[in-house]
Write a structure and sequence with these properties.
77% helix; 1 helix; 2 strands; two-stranded antiparallel sheet
Length: 69
């Protein structure tokens, strides 16, 4: 069963081209979900690297202040 705009169809109701389009839409939705998950993972990594960088910069500044004293 295929639902399009709240109407239900069987594959027999659709032409070969329409079935291919439905399959492509499903495939693209899967691709999009994978890309969204990957984007979330990348955002987590960006945050982790930014935190690490900020910590290392703070440590460097503290070391410089101690050296100057």
């Amino acid at each position: 069963m295929i639902t399009i705009d709240d109407k239900t169809y069987t594959e027999d109701d659709l032409s070969a081209t329409q079935v291919a389009q439905v399959q492509r839409i499903e495939s693209l939705r899967i691709d999009l979900a994978e890309l969204e998950m990957r984007a979330q993972e990348i955002n987590v990594l960006i945050s982790a690297y930014a935190s690490s960088l900020n910590e290392s910069l703070s440590s460097s500044e503290e070391e410089e202040e101690e050296t100057e004293e």
